[in-house]
Design goal:
alpha/beta; binds S-adenosyl-L-homocysteine; Ribosomal Protein L25, Chain P; about 250 residues; six-stranded parallel beta sheet; Alpha/beta knot; 2 domains
């Protein structure tokens, strides 16, 4: 069944107004008619079965009928990734949505080749991936900010997994065994961020600063140098398997 991310509230018998683009997709691409069903979620009220109530020129009106799933969120995992080539950033955002990252924070580092970031396009990719992957929220994508600013404003209690390709760091799985970061087992699930550097890697100064931070753990993603998108996918996969929601 079609899943649609909407902004409006979802409640019994509430009218839901998708955007014009969404309305066109529903009626012209998916050929939905009055009376047809689809699923809608808004990141707050869970997932609702809705019916097409009206098809108007200015858009479709849906009627929320029944809550099919309550609002839930995956583990508090965020991905912090240096800006790389546009196409790879788009892949990273899509995979972060499928792999359950709550947030994707773009950062500028010494060696970032700052391709122009189209945040509206990244938001659309995140939304479409969230609809496809069946999650109940859409990951937030933040505009690029300097790595130092992210580190200076670090949230208390959050841990940073620094993917360090320069060698010598422990494997991700070893790290996860050490730290109480299981989710859903009663103990407060640790909040984690994964940091991936640019194509040129982190500068020596950036590496030193990162390794010295109390909330940081440097990890290796194996003996081969991975491209940033591969590294992001690998790190999120390992984290979810070792400490996230893949064991439910
Ligand atoms: N400077 C590297 C390329 C960096 S790859 C080179 O020698 O060409 C981009 C980012 O992916 C790195 O900064 C790191 O965060 C991550 N990464 C890639 N391979 C990795 C590995 N084997 N272990 C840990 N992190 C890795």
């Amino acid at each position: 069944m079609i899943r649609l991310h909407v902004n409006g509230d979802l409640a019994a018998a509430a009218p839901v107004a998708p955007t014009l683009d969404q309305s066109r997709y529903l009626t012209q691409v998916m050929r939905l008619k009055v009376g047809d069903d689809l699923l809608a979620f808004n990141g707050r009220d869970g997932e609702w079965r809705c019916t097409v109530a009206e098809v108007l020129k200015k858009g479709v009106i849906l009627l929320a009928e029944e809550q099919m799933r309550p609002q839930t969120f995956g583990p508090d995992l965020e991905l912090i990734v240096a800006v790389v080539k546009k196409a790879r950033v788009e892949t990273i955002v899509e995979k972060a949505a499928e792999l359950g990252a709550r947030r994707v924070r773009l950062v500028l580092t010494k060696r970032t080749n700052a391709d122009r970031i189209r945040l509206d396009r990244l938001d659309a990719i995140a939304e479409e991936a969230a609809e496809q992957t069946g999650r109940m929220d859409v990951p937030v994508v933040d505009d690029p900010v300097k790595l130092d600013a992210v580190l200076d404003g670090w949230e208390a209690g959050r841990r940073l997994m620094f993917c360090d390709e320069t060698g010598g760091a422990p494997a991700v799985t070893a790290l996860m065994r050490q730290s109480p970061s299981r989710t859903g087992t009663g103990d407060a699930p640790a909040k984690w961020s994964i940091l991936i550097g640019p194509e040129g890697g982190f500068s020596p100064e950036e590496g030193e600063r990162l390794r010295a931070l109390p909330f940081t753990t440097a990890v290796s993603l194996g003996p081969r140098i991975l491209r940033a998108d591969t590294a992001a996918i690998a790190a999120m996969t390992l984290w979810q398997a070792a400490a996230g929601d893949w064991d439910r």
